[in-house]
Design brief:
18-stranded mixed β-sheet; 36% strand; 4 helices; alpha+beta; two-stranded antiparallel ribbon; single chain; 303 residues; globular
Length: 303
């Protein structure tokens, strides 16, 4: 078995993604390789999406999702869009079904180049998010940062989109908060035994939100698809919006938006947005040693 595999540097609304082709192999991208890749500014990432051979009938691939600290993630919507774009360029197909440790994901590339990912049903039960304390209503849990009589952040909506999320509602631009200071404290708060993604969400209108996220295992991120889904669902759940919203990701490097629909007919959350191919190369999935391919031009390429 060769010690090198193909990979692509991509992004989903600025979310830095490495799509790694592990098909035909039995090994995995190691935590050591992930940490080494993230330590190099050229390959620093939010998530690795490692494409493996399918494990279940009716699926196109198994996807391992690896955070930049080497830990495993259950879901990454922005990364899934990148996988779809790469495989669509390779196969000419538009629709795919993936399996992850969080379950089955169906995704489709549209004619305009945007990609929709069915992220499945949200989970609200406190012990399945999970939380360390029982709450009958997780749309508003008791948790705050700052003075008791004047907290900076408080009363988040908690839920799971395959991974734990806490959505703190704010009344000003999420970029105005020191999320890089509060994020690590909240991600590792005892309330979240499996840690949590921490999102600040501002309601702009009954159909639009502005968000910024500290991502579990990745830190301050330019974008987080599952967090956008969690914010949209939490907004509808608390009566702030309807079930379909536009998300303005405050930290995204270029003006771009996600459309999130929490479908009424089956409670599934569907996220639609862009993906972008940057460049490709080869890497060693054990050590993280990598090499970039010769300069490329044009749009999406096949792995």
């Amino acid at each position: 078995m060769t010690d090198k595999v193909q990979f692509a540097r991509m992004n989903g609304l600025g979310n830095k993604i490495l799509v790694v082709d592990m098909r035909g192999r039995k090994d995995r991208v190691t935590p050591a390789a992930a940490i080494a890749l993230n330590a190099d500014p050229a390959t620093a990432f939010d998530q690795i999406m490692a494409i493996h051979d399918p494990k279940a009938d009716g699926t196109d691939a198994w996807i391992d999702i690896v955070n930049c600290d080497g830990s495993m993630a259950q879901a990454c919507g922005n990364g899934t869009r990148c996988v779809v774009q790469a495989l669509a360029a390779e196969t000419g197909r538009k629709a795919f079904t993936f399996q992850t440790i969080a379950g089955i994901l169906n995704a489709r590339e549209h004619e305009d180049g945007t990609i929709s990912v069915d992220m499945g049903e949200p989970v609200f039960a406190w012990d399945r998010i999970p939380l360390a304390e029982e709450f009958a209503d997780t749309s508003r849990i008791e948790l705050q940062i700052g003075p008791i009589d004047n907290p900076v952040l408080h009363s988040p909506s908690a839920m799971s989109m395959g991974n734990p999320h806490a959505i703190f509602w704010v009344d000003k631009d999420p970029m105005s908060f020191d999320l890089d200071r509060f994020g690590p404290l909240l991600e590792n708060h005892p309330m979240f035994p499996e840690r949590a993604n921490i999102t600040l969400a501002q309601m702009l209108s009954p159909s639009s939100l502005r968000t910024r996220t500290w991502e579990r295992g990745a830190g301050l991120t330019l974008a987080c698809g599952s967090a956008a889904c969690a914010a949209a669902v939490s907004a509808a759940r608390t009566g702030r919006t309807g079930r379909k919203v536009t998300i303005d990701v405050a930290s995204a490097p270029a003006p771009a938006k996600l459309t999130i629909e929490w479908r009424e007919r089956d409670d599934h959350v569907v996220m639609t947005g862009p993906a972008e191919w940057e460049w490709s190369g080869t890497l060693n999935p054990t050590t993280g040693i990598w090499r970039r391919d010769e300069a490329e031009t044009g749009g999406a390429r096949a792995l």
